[in-house]
Fold this protein.
Amino acid sequence: MASLPVMVTALLATYTSATPVLSANLDAGNVHVGVDLNGVSSTLKGLFTSAAQASPNVTTSRCKVYPGDAAWPSDEAWAKLNELSDGRLIADATPRAAVCYPDQPTYNATQCAAYTVAEWQKSYTHIHDPIEMYSPVAQGLTCSIPNLFDSRGCTRGGFPKYVMNATEPKHVQLAVNFARNTGVRLVVKNTGHDFLGKSGGKDSLSIWTHWMKDIEYIEKYEDSNMGYSGPAFKTGTGVQAFEIYKAAAEKKRIVVGGEGETVGVMGGYILGGGHSPLTPIYGTGADNVLSFEVVTADGEFVVANSTSNTDLFWALRGGGGSTFGVTTSVTVKAHPDVEVTAARFGFSSAQTGVETFWAAIRSYVDSWIANADAQTYTYWTLIPSNGTFAFAFSPFFAPNKSLEDATALLQPWFNKLNELGVKFDPNITHFDNYYDAWRSSFPLEAVQKPNVATASRLFPRGNFESEEKRQEIFDHIKRSSEKNRVQVHFNMQAKDPANNDNAVNSHWRPMVSFSMQSVRWPINSTSEEILKIRNDFQDVDAQSWRDISPGAGGYLAEADRLEPDFGFAFWGDKYPKLLELKKKLDPYDLFFATTGVGSEKWKVESVDGLPNENGKLCRVE
Ligand SMILES: Cc1cc2nc3c(=O)[nH]c(=O)nc-3n(C[C@H](O)[C@H](O)[C@H](O)COP(=O)(O)OP(=O)(O)OC[C@H]3O[C@@H](n4cnc5c(N)ncnc54)[C@H](O)[C@@H]3O)c2cc1C
């Protein structure tokens, strides 16, 4: 990751930082590509220039440019892109499961056998892969390990054709300029965790930000516009939750990041808002951003903060990834460490009987407002299985709470469980620091299954304020379970104590429960069958949750590609401004992400008609 010391005055920061990698040519706060194009032939040079250096060659063709099109760049052009980016362009990266297919160059029966389903679904198995996504359904399921899903061979499907393995802003600028000037589809992948698969795109050029791993601690960062004076971390955008949490713990600090340990918290997570076990006390990830370094659609490398490129700064804090630019670094607040009390336990209807089980869940709903107001974060699950139901606190997590305070908060519900005769072992543990509490409390989550889609809802306080409303939401949760929907809920509040004006979904603020339900289909269903199940899931199950929370929304990173009216759902009253900014900041529609801001104008025409990345990206007529 390169730094921009020239921008420090704009940052209002009291630190000075490292030497820039770019041979920067400063102009009104922007830095142009420091790549020497002198040796590049006149026919190719235009592919690498920024929008300011030459009028962009914006095509109006219906679809982006794909292999086989006359406009597809020549081998010589791709080779030059590779050369200019210090050999960091990866061509035709092989899908990981290709080791299981004898017709693939990487076929390796031993490696294939090592990919048990459990091994394959571990998030660490794919952590350093340039193309793999944690949402295989969105990739198009064209190359799976056979013991998980029969993909009938191994083809590239929704994977990109070229990957820019970017470690410096210069690499990002080259890819951005090349895609804008050629019309090739551009995607951005960090970890590939997005539930909707927004890091993929058939035959695209992908910018892979994973190895932007620098972490710099800033003792004192000041920005009076943001009302902040205190420590901060400036990190590369490839930094993951487990990395920043560890770095912060070493300084006895905490940073707002996800509960999932491999999430790219400085990339797509923070750009989309991002909830955290610390959200109840410090707001979303995006609320904690002080500054970004970013490559814009024009190919400029700029700082976006409270004084430079302020529109861009507003949009990047919650407006979603792959929409307004490619961030290469982010500076975030570093808060003092906190004590934490956490509880993990579960019970199932197999032990309690079905009636008692539901009475126990009904009584739990009564405590959600109190738990959210007390600034706790409860990750809890409701799993149906062959007519039985299992509940788990996974965990109840109380930052800034002593053992006594947290126990007192849980006690009213525990009393009801005791009255109902539910046997449970609450396993309440106190930690004197966040890092140990987080490591001990949250599960290592897995890659999504090949037959699942998830819809989400940010249920506001109004859904819990009366007995009648609590009964209503309970009835809907129960009904979803009875229809075999797997549910994951986060009971919390997401108010921003600094009350920043940013693009974070306005629906987060009155929220008391971020709730998800998933539909599963028989693994070998046809495309038509899957589409019907997915449409029914939206029209019936997800719609019933929408019906009881009119005017609420969902979470853009943990949601369904089929979410209707996604602009309002994912951004609420911020959407009209975001649409205006999209037109202004990316007039070329260079950046696209399904359900991203402004994505209504484009659609992936998938080969099987399913909502996935295995097809050309074309304009909606
Ligand atoms: C196991 C698991 C656990 C999760 N836990 C949490 C959690 O605790 N809290 C939470 O809020 N969410 C959580 N999520 C959801 C997660 O926040 C989103 O999936 C998020 O989008 C991941 O960002 P990423 O950069 O890691 O993933 P990617 O899928 O690589 O990227 C997500 C989106 O951001 C774009 N993007 C990524 N980096 C950049 C960049 N530098 N510049 C521009 N665009 C970029 C991508 O193009 C894509 O559109 C979890 C997901 C999984 C699968």
